[in-house]
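Quick bug: Sugar ABC transporter permease output formatted oddly.
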Amino acid sequence: MNGRFLLADNLENLIRRTALFGILGIGAGFVIITGGIDLSIGSVVALAGCMLPWLLAVHHWPASAVVPLLLGIALCIGLAHGLLITKLRLQPFVVTLCGLLLYRGTARGIAGDQTQGFGVGFESLRYLAVGTPFSIPVPFLSWISEGRFSPYAVHPFTGVRTRLDPITWIDIPMPFLLFLAIAVAASIFLNRTIYGRYLMALGRNEQAARYSGVDTDRMTILAYVLCSVLSCFGGMLFALEVNSAQPVDFGNFYELYAIAAAVLGGFSLRGGEGAVMGVVLGTALMQVLRNAINMLGVPTQIEFAVIGAVILSGVIADELVRRYAAARRKVVGA
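Here's what came back:
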């Protein structure tokens, strides 16, 4: 294990990135559970991330007006996706692919292809992305990070031994708390409410759900609205974290990270299966993979190859599990 992986700064950054991408993953999960797909997540992230500093720093709008406005725009985006898919019977792939291009182009047009930044202000708002409300103690972490369980660090050139503190304090970033709140709310929604059961039923068999009295159109629209709103919220947090947004590449391929995290976490691309805890674990694994690529000195160009392999592995595993379950049912029925 690379000793830098267990450094406090690296773990804090890993937790923050897991939280930010996890919010997008939960949004993607809502759509995937209905059997749909949303390819516009990254472009919604870019639109929200560029419009936030553009309205706050350039046009001097108050944050109390900008944040609800952007969330309202995201709600309308999700509503448009849902209506096109349910009323016009367009394929989700086509609708959201067009959205990917449309929202990216809108962000670039609004910003004039110029980087939008917050400057030195808006500290209270930026606290949502970069704040650390509290820290937790982790015993012996610094000892393990040396590659062996030792209370001493040895300088690689001079050989001087330095005693390490037995307790390492890890800052818990604010985005992680927001992510936990969203994850808990999403889990309760999916597992403890009738609407969550409706989404599951819709993904398993839309026609059967409709015959059972479920308003499948309304549930599909709800899934796309939730995905767009969470993408918008995540986009604002991403922009606040880096203090700026470049419309050309901000949020590029973030939909892939979101979909990969959901699939890796157990969401079936066929719909009807998935758990929020799986998204949490899937997102964490994706970020650990990205971090490992950097730590091990592997060329970052293969990062997307890793993501593609993860998605493909999830699809293959889903198909094998489906076939195994079908074979078991056949044996039991016989």
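Actually, after a second look the formatting is fine. The chain has a mean pLDDT of 88. Closing.
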